[in-house]
Amino acid sequence: MLRNEKLKYLVTGAAGFIGNFVAERLCQQGHEVIGLDNLNDYYDPNLKLARLQRIEYLKSFHFIKMDITDREAMSELFATEEFDRVIHLAAQAGVRYSIENPMAYIDSNIVGMAVILEGCRHHDVKHLVYASSSSVYGMNKKVPFTTEDHVDNPVSLYAATKKSNELMAHAYSHLYALPTTGLRFFTVYGPWGRPDMAPMKFTKAIIEGRSIDVYNYGKMQRDFTYIDDIVEGVIRIQNVIPNAQGGDDNACSPLYKLYNIGNSQPVELEEFITCIENALGKKAIKNYMPMQDGDVVRTYADVTELENEINFKPNTLLQGGIKNLVDWYNAFYK
User: When you count CB atoms within 10 A of the terminal residue's CB, does the N or C end of the chain come out lower?
Assistant: First the structure.
């Protein structure tokens, strides 16, 4: 990208946690952003609307309520807007919910991804960046996780759909010369975060004096990654467009890339809970429980390749990130 070149972006999931901040950053850099979201009720739509209100001051941001599985509407959108780049962050999230409602994941994560790929293919999009997940690593024992690891044994349907997204992207990169970059996010948290994830759930429960469910009796580790670090990684990597220089090694399309984005510092669940207790000044009531179906014991990102490519790696310490989350939570929910 030339310095000061103004581009037009499609950001899906623009009312979501990560998508909202990505859209804001792109607009602040002088780009035009069309933000899409279907505003479903998987969690409180009022939080999604509040995120949109947070960035409504941006003159170069335009929000459209649309479902990415609506093939006709999406096709018309791509044809009309002529996007330069697409950052696809919309998805049905959550590991445990995929056990209860599997078809929601097939519709949003598989069909939706196919619709996005088709739009990019037919309308000369120069780079598709899309969200994958650390869930694809399943029960891998080797740590830290690298993008070279074997990931063909998912333990949840959510993970299976995210691995499918990577495979679909590779096929389009190979067949249609569409540059694609997949980002495996590791447990993203921070202000404006998703209420179905542990940081927000635990904060809410502790404030209200309710018990928190501590799975696998606390013997778990997560590579918690602060929202600002995730957004910085997304913004930098979307400027790094995979190209065919160097040729195809017959194993992977040169137009296809994958990166981990994680803090590379796994934290014990008990330590994580202590951070929230300290920020709140209140002890948690812990309900120790066995491992849940679809869950994994540990996540741990190797981000060497990301750092080499963009000269950046997530580095926000958990204590500071949790304090920011708690301060926001108290202000937002009063």
Answer: C
d(CA 129, CA 140): 25
Q: Which of 267, 108, 109, 307 is nearest to 187 (CA)?
A: 267
The answer, as to whether pTM is greater than 0.90, is: yes
| Structure tokens given for 156 | 């949840």
Give residue-wise pLDDT tens across range 245-301.
655 555 789 999 999 999 999 999 999 999 999 999 999 999 999 998 888 889 989
Q: How many Å apart are CA 68 and CA 112, to the nearest integer? A: 5
* pLDDT value of position 293: 87
Active site residues: 158
Question: In sequence order, what are the beta bridge partners of 10?
Answer: 34, 86
Q: Are 127 and 105 in contact (CB under 8 A)?
A: no
Q: What is the pLDDT of residues 166-180, one digit of tens each?
A: 999 999 999 999 999
Convert the pLDDT of each residue in 178-218 to its tens digit: 999 999 999 999 999 999 999 999 999 999 999 999 999 99
Complete DSSP assignment for 221-251: EE--EEHHHHHHHHHHHTTS----TT---SS
Q: How far apart (Å, rounded) are the C-alpha atoms in residues 181 and 166? A: 9
Cα 303 from Cα 141, distance rounded (Å): 17
Instruction: For residues 57 and 53, give the distance between their C-alpha atoms in angstroms, rounded to a whole number.
Output: 8
Q: Hey, what are 272's tokens?
A: 């994580």
Work out the burial of residue 142: count CB atoms within 10 Å of its CB; fewer than 13 is exposed, 13-18 middle, 19 or more buried: exposed
DSSP states along 80-123 = HH--SEEEE------TTHHHH-HHHHIIIIIIHHHHHHHHHHHT
Bridge-based pairing state of the strands 211-214 and 188-189: unpaired
Token pair listed for 170: 């590779």
Question: Where in the chain does DSSP place strands (E)?
Answer: 8-12, 32-37, 61-65, 85-88, 127-133, 180-185, 188-189, 211-214, 221-222, 225-226, 256-261, 267-268, 285-288
Q: Strand 225-226 and strand 61-65: pairing?
A: unpaired
